[in-house]
Amino acid sequence: MRYRYRNGVGTPERRPAAQLKFAAAVIVVLCIAGPAMGKAWNAATRRIITPPTGSTDSGTMVVPSAVVFNPGDSTASFPVHFYIGTFYADTQYVSSLAKNDSATVVFDTWPALQRGSQTARCSTALVADESTANDRITRTFNVRVRDVGVDSIYRPRGIIDSGSSITPQARVTNYSTGTQSFYAKFRVGNSYLDSQYVFNLSSGSSTTVSFNTWRADTCGTFTASCTLSLANDQVVGNNKKQNSCTVLKIYRDASTMRIVGPKGVVDSGTVLTPQAVVRNYGNTAETFPVIFTIGPDYTDTMQVTSLAPQDSQLVTFAYWTAVAPGTFAVRCSTAQPGDTSASNNWASDSVEVVASSYDVGVTRLIAPKGVVDSGAVFSPQAMVRNHGNTAASFPVIFRIGAAYADTMQISGLAPQDSQLVTFAYWHAGPGGVLTTRCSTALAIDTLASNDAATDSVQVIVRLYDVGAIRVIALPDTADSGNLYVPQAIVRNLGSEPMSFPVRMTIGAYSDTKQVNNLPAGDSWAVTFAVWTASGRGSAAAVCSTMALDDRDSTNDLALKTIFQRVRDVGAEMINVPTGNVTQGTVVSPSATLENFGNSSDNFPVVFHIGTFYSDIQYTNGLSVTFRPCTLAVMGSFTMKCSTAMSGDRIRSNDAVIDSIRVVSSGIDAGDLPGTPRAVTLSTSGSSVFSGSATIVYGLPKRTPVRLEVYDACGRPVQTLASGVGEPGYHTAVWHCTGADGRALPGGAYFVRLTTDGLTLTSKVVKLK
């Protein structure tokens, strides 16, 4: 008897609730009455049918099944459980199985996804079972995976010198659950093919496969690919890897452009870092040593690694200490193996080491001097000079009477150079004649007689004088729209307490506060009403005291210049792509931006094309170019470029929206309506041809135009158009001939369109 408890769509059939309740009641009665009636109850699992012993391929849809048996002496109904590992469990119900009869039970489908050794268990669950020893059967089987893959191609790749002999190599891995043997096939372009047999590669192991030598005789860019062939490979997506290599004639030329330092005159004992600029004038990235010498005692070598063609690099060498006085030759040279031009390998200069002399002093006092009003505010100033032959850093002290002293630090004052030193504010007082003195304090000064200068100032006491000292609590830069609470420090410079109004103005903003009974000599911080920064550009915050009996109006005003910053950027125009674009074209989207604010900002810009392309770039300029995009799907698509600067005041100008139409690569120039919005270049039909190629180019305006064809080594072979082009779409047919009319061999060629300020390039391939 065979039980397939299935409904019409292949899922386990579920018993109605009433039938299950009845069956449960029958089982309970039998459990109670069975022994009394002398009946023997027993349900057993005889064998597991599926999954079978041995190996099962990963991904197989397995339908578990087992044979159960009733060895008792009465008809029995009971559930049967089936388990595979810890990840599969199903229960089916066997109804009314006669004594000494068996049944095949089929369970829910299990996808064999868990690789390796697995255990299947089937067991009966008769409630009144009097012998449980035969309830369960187990089976062990293996889920097998067959999969090998190419991890990477080691060689060839990158730039290869023409004529080189290369041993192609690829790294492969056995991802199977067992040992595998398979073929590896390697191709380079259309001219090289080789196969190697990988024997008994163990599970999880990798190996590097080397192929027969390939000679790079032909210039151009070639695709290198490695493909694996394993019978019944279950993951074919990793069977192939490919990259590209470019064969060209390499010339090497590493040059020393200039010596940055040391040179000129330096102090004895100075520690300097030798530096020089080198350049790669060759056509491929190069690694080479650079040697730097100073006199007979200093030599250091640094390695420049992978310097790009036509690129320069600043090379920094080990420290050099200028010890002995004298003039020393400085020389830097490159030592590139195979250098084709030795004349530019080195550069030379000289450095003079002199003994240090330290002498600084005060040449004169600038302020204060003469007669000043009591309470007036001055910035003491003095002129100092470095009389030595070595740059010097030193403190300068200014004293006025016994109550004022301030120190300023001078850093790196050059030999024979002078500097005006400004000190902290001095409030003129007390009354009388006060001595002013300024002095330098260089610890290693060799001549002390010129270190100090003295003068005097007479302070006249004024009875009633208040003044605005300074504006505080306002930033140097205020963002438009933000709220600020202006404050100012005012001071009673007279001899009596005073009450007076204080006014703060910032453009159209004005507020007045009253200061009452400010003691003589005291200061007060006046807080004004909230000011909203609403303009743009510079604004003057002016605080003024307005005492009626003030006898010195020169100190009544304090001013602070505030820059009102407006942060507002937006997208103005999408430059690339525009209009109709040929399917498969790779474009680098670009857009023109506008800074409507009045300060430089660095901000993100987002570019979308339909739903298949999105990129974000950060810029502080007015144009931005995004990562390349391949327009692979035909149709019309919406493009959106938008700025996303935090704190942008006006969001309405952030985005610009445009659209493009991606058309078939086989479209005719006559099928493109109107005038393009930008210069375009494409082929009519496939870019791979055997007889002739039709080139389609579009001009948005009347402009000088030149259409040329170059071979893979960059040599011009034919001019298709030259002159002034009219707006619209144009075609040019190239029959794969050179300027002399002779047919050119098959391979890759490049069509270059040059207009006023723009160059576009498209690749075409002639079949051999």
UniProtKB/TrEMBL annotation:
Q: Where is the FlgD/Vpr Ig-like domain?
A: 703-755
Query: Gene3D superfamilies of this UniProt entry?
Result: 2.60.40.4070, Immunoglobulins
InterPro entries hit by this protein? FlgD/Vpr_Ig-like, Ig-like_fold
Domain of life the protein comes from: Bacteria
Protein name as annotated: T9SS type A sorting domain-containing protein
User: Source species, please?
Assistant: candidate division WOR-3 bacterium
